[in-house]
Design brief:
seven-stranded mixed β-sheet; 17% strand; globular
């Protein structure tokens, strides 16, 4: 055991936190070169890109009949400033908005751009992936996303998000999303004012991604399938596995068009066919290198932890322009590739039936919590912050040291780890987590849905979210049913709570369902507003927007759910 020296004393928890000069300097240099100050560039005749106004770029295609907007920004607040800048150089009506994919930083500002008659284009897979962001795991993804984007951190600790201006998470709670009016699979083409715009489905960072090809100008808009950083094959805010084989194929489809200009939805454009080809090729080869390394290692029986520890890009890719690990990260990607292909079990039999209370038992083997705490403090003094953070995390998981003692030391260790981290996601997550340990967690705000989005939101999303909002422990002894009659459009559902599980059935109830405790009749719009927390039940009743055949029964049933978004 590496015990602390007797005369060393505890670490100075009040000393200024070194948030990482080396890490922040490297990130700041990237912010300056790959993003820069807010500005509008005309990268080709009638092709304008607004860079630095938001996390994602907004691209304007000017035609003789009006403008086409590619990606609409993260929030109405940010989109208004972006539109003002683009209107100053290319005013005109907005004939179409194209979403390269459904991530909120590309769609949340659409209300600023969509006008009467504006077409909104996306792939057919768009809606399902958009609604996932408001679905069952919204709270977990939002909390982790706020940490990933460094909510509450000063600019000097996190000068950018590696892909663009730092995200304004609070502003993005006001969503201006507008659902597509036109969707497609494969390829589609539209002509606006004599300009031919080709849309190509191109799975990659998301399963609903597309790229935009302007054949006459040789301009390619790849969305988030390539940008000036190692691709985010896994995001620490949480996501399902990303389709790396399809991502490689999408990059090859872009290479085949031999574009002269590349205008990503993040970071600065690339001009020149050789430069564009080099960037696209290096990105696809880096993805394939990691995929193949995981395949070879797994087939050779190498554990996932060993693969994560040893797999690296070769120098010609690690040092290639645009592949620095500033947004995605190789070790995270290796673990995601393994888990996505083979699942959590890596073949080691002891992983199948681990012992209980393993953290507490191993800490006792190491001499007890006081000795482990002393070792962690010694590691901090020696500059071995990652080991210190690991030990302190074990103590947290074991529950053997009180939070008042542990949290300040954990915060110091996380800040010290961040010292050498230039990856903006990892750096932000570490520093924001440390801030939460010392000042309390930053509150995750409630999404504000505007009327247009609520009207377009399928009621199926509400039913997807409801099971996770059931107070399961409180409802474990209950077996209740509620009849729900929705109007405009008309539909009937049976909601059954069966010992802590919610079942939603459209139409006739299933066999064994108890008689409904009450029948609620309301409009689909009112039901969505109630369950989203936009309308209080008392107000709905008072305004006559909701009727219940048995009011106490309805309130008893609904009282078993948490409300809000």
């Amino acid at each position: 055991m590496d015990a602390a020296a007797p005369d060393a004393g505890p670490p100075d928890l009040d000393a200024p936190a070194d948030a990482g000069v080396g890490g922040v300097e490297a990130l700041a240099a990237h912010c300056a070169s790959a993003i820069g100050p807010p500005r509008v560039e005309e990268v080709a005749p009638d092709v304008f890109v607004a860079i630095g106004y938001d996390l994602a770029n907004t691209i304007l295609l000017r035609t003789a009949d009006g403008n086409v907007i590619v990606d609409a920004g993260m929030s109405p607040a940010r989109a208004r400033a972006t539109r003002a800048a683009l209107d100053a150089v290319a005013p005109g009506p907005v004939r179409a908005v194209i979403y390269t994919h459904s991530h909120i930083d590309h769609v949340g500002g659409a209300s600023v751009w969509v006008e009467p008659g504006t077409e909104v284009w996306a792939t057919e897979a768009f809606l399902a992936h958009l609604l996932k962001q408001y679905g069952a795991f919204r709270e977990a993804e939002s909390a982790r996303g706020a940490l990933q984007f460094g909510q509450g951190l000063p600019d000097e600790a996190l000068p950018c998000s590696a892909l663009g201006r730092r995200a304004d998470v609070d502003a993005a709670l006001e969503t201006g999303v507008r659902l597509p009016t036109h969707t497609f699979s494969g390829e589609a083409a539209l002509e606006v004012g004599g300009t031919v715009i080709q849309l190509v489905e191109a799975h990659g960072e998301t399963h609903d991604q597309l790229f935009v090809w302007l054949p006459a100008a040789g301009v390619l808009l790849p969305g988030d399938n390539v940008y000036a950083a190692f691709p985010n094959l896994y995001t620490i805010r949480g996501t399902s596995p990303r389709p790396v084989d399809a991502w490689i194929a999408s990059l090859d489809a872009m290479r085949a068009r031999d574009p002269a200009i590349l205008v990503p939805s993040h970071t600065a454009p690339i001009v020149g066919r050789p430069e564009v080809q080099a960037r696209l090729t290096a990105c696809r080869d880096a993805i394939q290198w990691l995929r193949d390394a995981v395949v070879r290692g797994a087939n050779a029986g190498v554990s996932v932890d060993a693969l994560v520890e040893t797999t690296r890009l070769p120098p010609h890719l690690a040092d290639a322009p645009g592949l620095a690990e500033l947004y995605g990260q190789v070790d995270w990607s290796v673990r995601a590739l393994y888990d996505g292909a083979l699942g959590w079990f890596d073949g080691r039999p002891e992983r199948l039936y681990p012992p209980s209370d393993v953290d507490a038992r191993e800490i006792e083997l190491m001499g007890g919590p006081e000795a482990v705490l002393a070792t962690a403090e010694s590691a901090l003094r020696r500059g071995d912050a990652r080991f210190a953070a690991h030990l302190l995390g074990r103590l947290r998981d074991a529950g053997l040291v009180d939070a008042a003692t542990l949290d300040p030391r954990r915060a110091q260790a996380l800040r010290a780890v961040a010292g050498s981290v230039a990856n903006s996601n990892g750096r932000a997550y570490l520093l924001a987590s440390a801030l939460a340990l010392t000042e309390g967690p930053h509150p995750v705000g409630q999404v504000v849905f505007d009327d247009a989005f609520v009207a377009e939101l399928p009621v199926s999303v509400i039913f997807e979210v409801m099971p996770g909002r059931l107070k399961a422990e409180q409802a474990q002894a209950e077996h209740l049913a509620l009849a729900l009659v929705l109007t405009a459009p008309d539909a009937r559902y049976t909601l059954t709570i069966r010992r802590g599980v919610l079942e939603v059935v459209e139409g006739a109830p299933l066999p064994g369902t108890p008689a409904p405790i009450s029948t609620i009749t309301t409009s689909t719009d009112t039901w969505k507003r109630l369950t989203l927390g936009l309308l209080a039940p008392a107000a709905a009743l008072g305004e006559g927007r909701l009727q219940a055949s048995d009011l106490p029964g309805a309130l008893r049933f609904l009282g078993l759910f948490r409300t809000g978004t």
